[in-house]
Design a protein that fits this description.
The complex is a heterodimer of chains A (110) and B (547). With 110 residues, chain A is mainly alpha-helical. Chain A has a domain of 70 residues. Chain A starts with 16 loop residues before the first helix and ends in a 5-residue tail after the last helix. With 547 residues, chain B is mainly alpha-helical. In chain B, α3 runs parallel beside α16 and α7 packs parallel to α18. Chain B contains 23 helices and no strands. The chains are: A mainly alpha (110), B mainly alpha (547). At the A-B interface, α1, α2, β2 and α4 of A face α7, α11, α13, α15 and α16 of B.
Chain lengths: 110, 547
C-alpha cells in the first residue's frame, strides 16, 4: 500500500477491489474476453508469420502468378491488411458488449 | 535565429535563373507555412498548459478520431515515407514487408495493450508496471528503456531530416539536423502534449494528402491501368536505364541469393520485431493517456489502423512507381550508391514538378517534426515522471511544477544526444532500417513486462527488472554483434541484422525466470485484484481534466 501521492487515484475512491474481483460477473467477463482475445491473437500471429516464412523459405511457390504479373506473395501481403481491418472490426463489435458488462459490474462504485 | 540563416543561404547554383524566384523558393515557403502554423498551435497550447495532466496528457481531452490521427501522425514516420519508398524502389517486394508489419502490429496494441494501459496508467508506460511492483527499480529501468528506444527512433528521423533539407535547400547535413532539433524542442518545451498532438494531426492529414496525390500521379503515368502498372513493376528498368528486374517477386533483399543462408530468418526476425514492437513503443503508448477513457483509446486505435493501413498500401505505389519511372542516375548518391531515403521526393519532382516536390518535401519535414516531437515528449515525460519524481524523490513532488520543468530540461538533453548521433552516423544510413531496430528493442524490453504485469499474478519486481534489463541489453548487444555492428559484415558474430527472433524470447524468458527464481511478492500479488479490476473495467481511471 505504498502508493505514492503522485500515483494515487482520486481520494474518494476506495472500493473493495478483492470483492469486486471475485464477483462472478467479473470472472465471467474475463472468461469471455479471454475466449475472444487468445484465439484471435493465435490466429493473427500464425497468419502473419506465415507470410515471412513462406516468402523466405518457399519463394518459388510464392512467385506463382495469379493475375497478370500479380503473384501469391503480393496477394498474401495485401490480405494481411484486410485481416487486420476485419479483426479490428470484430474486436470493436465484441468489446462494445464487454463495456456494458463492465459498467454493470462497477455500478455504485464510481 | 535559424530562419534568418535559412533565408540568407544562396540557392543551388544549378537551377536556372528563371525558376529561382518561384520554384526554388516554393519548398522553403511551404515548409515555413507549416512551421508557422504549428508554432501558432504551440503558442495556443502553451496558454492552456496548466498542470501536469495538461502538459503530459493534453488534459485527457483528445477525442477518438483526433487521437487516431495523432497516433497515425506519430507512427507514419520519415522512415516509413522516405525509407520504405526507397527500399521498395530498390528491393521491391521485400521492402513492402516493413509496410505490412507496421500495420498488422496494431492488432497487438488493440487487443492486448491499449485499454489496460489507459485504465491503469497515468502519464507513462512505467505507470502500469509500477502499479503493483516496487516502483523505484521498475520505473528506473522502464525510464532507461524508454529513453533508449526513443533515442534510436529519433536518430532515424534526424537522419531523414538532414538528408531532405540538404537536398531541398542545400543546407549541409549537420546544420539541417540541428535546425530540426531546435524546432521540435520549441513544440515540446512550450506546447507539451497538446501542441504535439495537433502537430501530429495536421501532419497525418498532410501526409495522407501527399501520398494520395503521389499515388494518383504514378497510376496516371501508367494510364490508370493496374495491368500496365504491375507489368511495369515486373519488368522494372528504372526508366530504361537498368536491366529489367521483377520487383513483384520476393527475395531481392532477404532471399538466399541476395542475403545468404540467413536471409529468410532475418526477414522473420524483422517481422517479429515489427509486430511485437509497436505495443512496446513508449511514444505510441503515451498517446492513449490523452483520451478520456479506454473506449476512446480503442476507437482511436481503429481510426489509426484505417489511416495507417491506407497509407502503407500506398507505399507500394511510390516505391514500385519510382522503380518504373525514375532513371537510376537520379536516385543514386554522389558516390553511386542507392539513395534509399530520397526516392519519394524525387518521384514527386519528376511527376508533379517543382511545386509538388516542394509540397512532398514539406510533408516530409512535417512528418519528421511531428514524430520527433512525440518521441521527445514521451522520453522527457518518462524521465521526469518516472525517474525524477518517483525514483529520486520517492513519488513526493517536492515543489509544484518541478516535474514539468525536469521534463523540459530532459527534452533538451534527449534532443542534443540524438542530434549528435545522427550527425555522427551521417546521411547514408537507411531510416527504415534504424526504426526496425528501435522496434526490436521495444519488443524485447518493454512488451514482455507490460504483458506479464497485467496478465500474470505471480509476476514480481525481480521479474520486471530482469525482463527490462535483459531484453534491453540482449537486443542492443545483438545489434552491435550483427553485420551492421562493430565488426562489420565479415566479422559479425551474430548473423542476423534484426535481433528480434532471439532477443524477444530472451526478454520474455528473463522476465519469467526472474520471477520464478525469486521469492513470491505477497504485496504485488495482493494488488493484482485491484489492477485487474481497474484494467478491465476502467474503475478509478484518470479522468479528463479539461475540454
Amino acid at each position: 500500500m505504498s502508493q505514492s501521492p503522485l500515483d494515487a487515484p482520486s481520494p474518494a475512491l476506495n472500493p473493495d477491489w478483492e470483492k469486486l474481483e471475485e464477483k462472478p460477473e467479473f470472472r465471467a467477463l474475463l472468461v469471455r474476453k479471454r475466449q475472444f482475445i487468445v484465439p484471435s491473437l493465435v490466429f493473427f500471429m500464425l497468419f502473419y508469420l506465415a507470410l515471412p516464412i513462406l516468402v523466405g523459405y518457399w519463394p518459388d511457390l510464392m512467385k506463382t502468378k495469379v493475375w497478370g504479373e500479380v503473384n501469391i506473395a503480393y496477394v498474401f501481403a495485401l490480405s494481411q491488411f484486410l485481416m487486420a481491418w476485419i479483426m479490428a472490426y470484430l474486436y470493436v463489435r465484441v468489446a462494445a458488449k464487454w463495456d456494458k458488462s463492465a459498467a454493470a459490474i462497477i455500478k455504485g462504485h464510481e | 535565429m535559424i530562419f534568418d540563416a535559412l533565408f540568407s543561404l544562396p540557392f543551388s547554383s544549378q537551377l536556372p535563373i528563371l525558376s529561382l524566384s518561384m520554384a526554388s523558393n516554393a519548398p522553403l515557403i511551404m515548409f515555413l507555412a507549416f512551421v508557422g502554423l504549428t508554432l501558432l498551435i504551440t503558442f495556443w497550447a502553451a496558454k492552456k498548459n496548466t498542470g501536469a495532466s495538461a502538459y503530459f496528457a493534453a488534459g485527457r481531452s483528445i477525442t477518438g478520431w483526433q487521437n487516431g490521427l495523432a497516433v497515425a501522425g506519430d507512427y507514419m514516420s520519415a522512415a516509413s515515407f522516405l525509407g520504405i519508398s526507397g527500399m521498395i524502389c530498390f528491393s521491391g517486394y521485400d521492402g513492402f514487408m516493413y509496410s505490412v508489419g507496421f500495420l498488422v502490429a496494431y492488432i497487438t496494441v488493440l487487443l492486448v495493450v491499449a485499454e489496460p494501459l489507459r485504465n491503469a496508467g497515468k502519464y507513462t508506460m512505467a505507470d502500469l508496471l509500477a502499479y503493483r511492483l516496487k516502483p523505484r527499480p521498475v520505473r528506473a529501468l522502464a525510464s532507461l528503456s524508454t529513453l533508449t528506444v526513443s533515442t534510436f527512433y529519433m536518430i532515424a528521423q534526424m537522419v531523414g531530416a538532414g538528408v531532405i533539407i540538404q537536398r531541398l535547400i542545400g543546407l549541409p547535413f549537420a546544420p539541417a539536423v540541428v535546425g530540426v532539433g531546435v524546432l521540435m524542442l520549441v513544440y515540446v518545451v512550450f506546447g507539451g502534449m497538446l501542441a504535439t498532438t495537433w502537430v501530429q494531426i495536421i501532419k497525418a492529414l498532410l501526409l495522407i494528402a501527399g501520398a494520395l496525390l503521389l499515388s494518383f500521379l504514378v497510376l496516371q503515368f501508367h494510364e490508370f491501368s493496374f495491368t500496365k502498372f504491375f507489368n511495369a513493376v515486373a519488368h522494372a528498368d528504372y526508366g530504361g536505364t537498368a536491366e529489367p528486374k521483377n520487383l513483384m517477386e520476393p527475395g531481392l533483399k532477404f532471399g538466399v541469393a541476395a542475403a545468404g543462408p540467413w536471409g529468410p530468418l532475418d526477414l522473420i526476425s524483422l517481422c517479429l520485431g515489427l509486430v511485437l514492437g509497436t505495443a512496446g513503443l513508449p511514444h505510441i503508448l503515451v498517446r492513449f493517456y490523452t483520451v478520456p477513457d479506454a473506449k476512446t483509446a480503442r476507437s482511436s486505435v481503429v481510426w489509426a489502423m484505417a489511416i495507417i493501413g491506407a497509407f502503407y498500401i500506398m507505399t507500394t505505389f511510390f516505391g514500385f512507381g519510382a522503380a518504373t519511372i525514375l532513371e537510376k542516375a537520379k536516385i543514386l548518391t554522389a558516390d553511386g550508391k542507392p539513395d534509399t531515403n530520397m526516392v519519394a521526393p524525387i518521384l514527386a519532382q519528376h511527376l508533379g514538378g517543382e511545386l509538388f516536390f516542394a509540397f512532398i518535401s514539406a510533408v516530409a519535414f512535417a512528418t519528421i517534426l511531428a514524430v520527433v516531437a512525440g518521441l521527445t515528449m514521451s522520453a522527457s515525460a518518462s524521465f521526469a515522471h518516472d525517474f525524477y519524481s518517483n525514483v529520486i524523490h520517492h513519488g513526493k513532488e517536492n515543489r509544484p511544477g518541478m516535474e514539468i520543468r525536469v521534463a523540459r530540461i530532459t527534452a533538451f538533453c534527449v534532443g542534443a544526444v540524438s542530434i549528435g548521433i545522427a550527425i555522427y552516423l551521417g546521411p547514408s544510413v537507411n531510416a527504415a532500417f534504424l526504426v526496425g531496430l528501435a522496434f526490436a528493442v521495444a519488443a524485447s524490453a518493454n512488451l514482455p513486462v507490460i504483458v506479464l504485469s497485467v496478465f500474470w499474478k505471480r509476476f514480481n519486481t525481480s521479474g520486471a527488472v530482469a525482463g527490462l534489463a535483459v531484453g534491453l541489453i540482449s537486443s542492443i548487444v545483438l545489434i552491435l554483434l550483427s553485420p551492421n555492428g562493430m565488426f562489420g559484415k565479415a566479422g559479425a558474430i551474430f548473423p542476423l541484422e534484426n535481433p528480434g527472433i532471439v532477443s524477444i524470447p530472451i526478454g520474455f524468458l528473463a522476465a519469467w525466470l526472474g520471477t520464478i527464481l525469486t521469492a513470491r511478492d505477497p504485496a504485488a500479488e495482493a494488488k493484482f485484484a485491484e489492477l485487474r479490476v481497474r484494467a478491465h473495467t476502467g474503475l478509478g481511471s484518470e479522468k479528463a481534466t479539461s475540454h
